[in-house]
Structure formats: structure tokens, C-alpha cells
Amino acid sequence: MVLVLSGVLQEEPPHDSHSLLQAHPLYKEAASQLINVPTKVVGPVGLLYVHQRELAVTVPHDKHVNILGADDVTTCCIVVLRHSGSGAVALAHLDGAGTDEAVSTMVQRVQELAMAYPDGRLELQLVGGFSDSRHYSEELFYNIMHAFHRQIVEIDLTMACVGEVNTTIRGGIHWPILYGVGINIKTGELFPAQFPDKGPDLALRWARHLAGGQQTCFQVLDIYDCSLGMLRIGPFNYEPLRGVDLWLEQSDDFILQHLSTSPEVESPHFVMQVRQTLKYIQEHPFPAVTVFRDNRPHYYRRDEASGHWTPIRF
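The structure assignment produced for this chain is given below.
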């Protein structure tokens, strides 16, 4: 019993986002304020972009990262956990796979980085998910709430821009209002954001959750070491995708309808990214063999001149 809502310790987590918002109007107000902030288009300099089924953790004095962020969220949820005393912060892009383990990792990592700061509390912010027709967002919200409630430390929910408050209606179709957010790690400011540059190994990182099959594909990977300023991708494997050639022959609409949890409201570049990922899987059906030779991760460090992540060779 460690989840704190509106400053009150709860005996049980909320059953759904609607009951949370009805019982605690302050979350509606906070979500409305966030939605009304103009969306920032964030470039690559100082950005650590977090893909689906990934998380990253850092501290305010990290000289390599200024902003943690994620976007292209429809039925997924961006989860931010921050220690108010130290400023240590974790951000995850969750889709329902590996939720319990991801939440435990976020809490543990933030606590470790905040150990020297006796004052402060753990503050939780949720952005993403909407009133989708298949109720994927609601199931994910429920699982995230229960995962945090099972932790052994108090966690104060301060933002819940989810469900009905993150939903608008266009042409009779429910759409998410916010597709992405960033957090300024120096100030703790959360803001709506778009990220044209999504970092290195884009197709490889997409392939992990598109192909699936292996246990590691259903885990949420911690991709960043803030003590070294290094981004790490892999190693992992995935199952060869059966019929990948046939998938590539299908129309854009077919791919959209069958490979998205919310085909009516996907971002415009979704199908293009899926096609690039399918081609990557076609070229690398066994990444453990052709991509992660000798089981070595891909390491990247920020290039000070360009601001981009550049590969490190050991």
C-alpha cells in the first residue's frame, strides 16, 4: 500500500482511469494544463530518446543529456518517475510487455541515484493512452498502477494525462491528444514534444518488439548508463519473422490495419517505419549472429561537436 493519490496513501490502486479522474479532480486540472502547453519540436542535441519497451535513467548533472523523451504513443504510456530531492529521473515507454519488471527497475535505479539526498519524494507522472475502442490503454493503465502499488516505497502520483482527459473526437473517432512528451532533467519540467530524430539503430530497436518471440523481446531494456554517458543497444535476439517477404508486398493500409493497435490514429510515418523495420528483419533474421557479433552490445556516446550519438569501438 504505497501509492499516494492527492496526498493520501491508498489501500488499493484505482481500478481504471475514469474512477481516478472522478475521485481526484486535481489530475484533470494538471492534465489540462499540460495539454495547453505548446508542443516543442526537439532536435537531437542533448536528447536521449526512449523507444517502445525501453527505459532510461539519469540525473540533473548529466553533461551528455538535457532531455529524456518519447513519442508516437497511442495505446502505450510514457511513465516518468522522479525523485524531487535529487532530481534523479527515469522515463519508460511501456506497451504492456514487462511492466512489473520495468517499474521495479525504475524505482530501484532512481532510489540508487538519490541515495545521498535524504529529503524528497518519488513522484510519478503518466502520459499517454486514450479512450481507444479496444481498451488497450485502460488495461495498460491498470497494470502500471498495480505495479507501482506493489513497490515497498511510497510513490506520489502527480500527473495522469491518460484515458478520457487525453482523448479528443474527430469525425466520430477517438484520438489521443498528446502523442509524446519530454522532460527537462535539469528542471523537472514535463512538456508535450515531438522528436524527429529518434536516435541510433532505429530499425533494430523497432524490430525487437515487432518480431518478438524471444524472452528478451518482452522485456523493457534499460538503455543508458549515466555514470559513463553511454547509450547501449542490445544484445538481444528475435524470432525470424515468418512471411516477411509477403508482409512487404502488402498495401500500406493492410500493414496499418494488422500491425497497429490503433490503426485509425497512428502517426503519418508509422507505415514507412514498419516497412523499414521489415526490411531490416529480412536482412537480419538472426541478429544474435549478424548484428551482435560475439554477443557485444552497440555502444554510443554523445559527439560534442555534432551533438549526435556516435558509435564507440572497443
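Interim note for the steering committee: The mean pLDDT is 94. The longest strand covers residues 77-83.
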